[in-house]
Write a structure and sequence with these properties.
Layout lengths: L1 E6 L7 H12 L6 E3 L13 H7 L7 H13 L2 E12 L2 E11 L5 E5 L7 H4 L9 E6 L2 E10 L6 H9 L4 E6 L6 H12 L2 E6 L3 E4 L2 E4 L5 E3 L5 E4 L6 E6 L28
Parallel strand pairs: 1-2, 2-3, 7-8, 8-9
Antiparallel strand pairs: 1-14, 3-4, 4-5, 6-7, 9-12, 10-11, 12-13
The chain binds acetamide.
């Protein structure tokens, strides 16, 4: 299964330009599953709710989600990407830091980030839908479990563990990483859950209202042994595709006596 990352530098507030950049990077490339960064449509450093209102969208008909739908259909491939989601809930507008998984036939699934990082808490509501695994099939792969998590979710090992327990074989991890730890830590997330992980991180720097953030690039794809199959540069736009066998993530036996799921002693873990 051809699995890839698209690493780039979203330009804050320029949704159309960001779409163009994504289309250009995807041109001529083949993949079955492509993972884009967190908030890939909008950029990261919001300064007001008005800005977020303007740049967020409903997944069913938003500009960015529709553009991804077109790429997904054209490439006959699944795409995961972060975007600021607008939701109407009981007459109230809420905003979520979300990921969308788009299928080439137009169906889509949403994940809303459950662990908000730092000032994201000023703008976004915390995710309110369960961690789910979606089964996907295509050319040469069938019934593969896909889980989504977003950036800082990696800091909470329960997120990847819950996805793995629910059948995720590939964890799609759209990110805007600013701390230097995640790209190393994902080796453990992959190993301890015996899953593939695909961390698609953004690059570049954003400056807004006296605040500045630098993003660390270095997107990584790992196999269930925690081995790096791919590491991106710190600062370049890249679309990289790796051939993986998702069936490897179905085997949870480390040896003839240890199965990482059956050996869990959850009665000792409850607080
Ligand atoms: C992060 O969660 N964007 C650091």
């Amino acid at each position: 299964m051809k699995t890839g990352i698209l690493q780039f530098k979203p330009i804050f507030g320029k949704v159309k330009e960001n779409i163009k950049n994504i289309e250009n990077l995807a041109r001529g490339k083949e993949f079955d599953l492509l993972v884009l960064p967190e908030l890939a449509s909008s950029g990261y450093l919001f300064a007001s709710i008005d800005e977020l209102e303007e740049l967020s969208e409903f997944p069913e008909d938003g500009l960015f989600c529709n553009a991804l739908r077109k790429i997904s259909e054209k490439k006959n491939a699944y795409i995961v990407s972060g975007f600021p989601e607008k939701a109407d809930e009981g007459g109230k507008t809420r905003f979520y830091n979300s990921s969308i998984l788009i299928s080439p036939d137009g169906r889509y699934y949403i994940y809303r980030k459950i662990h908000l990082f730092y000032e994201e808490k000023l703008w976004f509501s915390p995710g309110n839908i369960p961690l789910e695994v979606h089964r996907i099939s295509g050319r040469g792969y069938e019934d593969v479990g896909i889980g989504m998590m977003i950036c800082f979710d990696w800091f909470f090992p329960e997120t990847a563990r819950a996805l793995a327990l629910r059948g995720a074989q590939i964890i799609c991890h759209s990110s805007n990483l600013v701390m230097p730890y995640c790209q190393s830590a994902m080796s453990v997330r992959a190993l301890e859950n015996q899953v593939f992980t695909v961390t698609s991180n953004r690059t570049g720097r954003e400056i807004c209202g006296g605040k500045e953030m630098e993003f660390t690039g270095g997107s990584v794809i790992l196999n269930p042994n925690g081995d790096y199959l791919f590491r991106a540069s710190r600062d370049k736009d890249e679309l990289a595709v790796i051939e993986i066998d998702p069936a490897l993530a179905l085997n949870k036996n480390l040896n003839s006596r240890n199965n990482i799921f059956k050996d869990r002693r959850s009665e000792f873990y409850e607080k």
